Request: fold
Amino acid sequence: MAWFRKEKKPLKSEDRRDLASDVFDKCEGCGEILYREKVTQNLHVCPKCGHHFRVGPEEYVRIFTDDGSFQEHDGHLRSADPLGFTDLKSYESRIHAAEQAGKPEAVVTGVATLDGIPIALGVMDFGFIGGSMGSVVGEKIARIGRRALEEERPLILVSASGGARMMEGIYSLMQMAKTSVVLARLHEAGIPFISVLTHPTTGGVTASFAMLGDVNLAEPGALIGFAGPRVIEETIKQELPEGFQRSEFLLEQGIVDRVVDRRELRTTTVRLLRHMFISSTE
Reply:
């Protein structure tokens, strides 16, 4: 009777010929063709191999806040062009193009509750000039850090960035110190800061606030580092170990505290906050 049974086979790329392009996604990890709606319901994680698709700040706001509790702050701040930077494409035109795509800046900040716990939240957006850290990004993170200090709210920052924004030169590099000082004040006050590192987190962001968490969490397979692997290999003239600068490698080296599946981020963070903050204030 096996002749009359049709084997269920995973959908492959060659089976996609006449299907609507907005119905399916191809997993970059295993190559499976997946129903987009199913991927969305799974928090944009491949149900086959666990590959984490890149998502925008809206998804992380949903993960880290209770429904309807998020109140954005400093959303009016916009990047300027202090150096009059011009290259193949002017800085101002790139800012304008990103804004036209509905991305006002490379970070969204605000306050909310998470499982009833008041928090301050910042989420970077890689879709805005590679999530690069310019003056506005540094200012918004510093402001949400100060608000967390004043209102005694734990701070959660979700990083996704190519590093400092070269079009702002020294102004961008100054944000590394500014954000780090605010986080040091939080630490002195005993207010938790949880840093969540997503793919990719590199450059000056890694070299400043992203690695200063009381707890540093990372999504699986995320690229995390200062310089890229190719640059490092060319500098030290040695081949790097397999998986170098990925979350799992950094966990083995003690650089991050835990690698957490996106589907577990909310429950893990709530558990940490109840241990680090609620228990200490009772």
The chain has a mean pLDDT of 91. The two ends are 67 Å apart (CA to CA). Residues 21-53 form one domain.
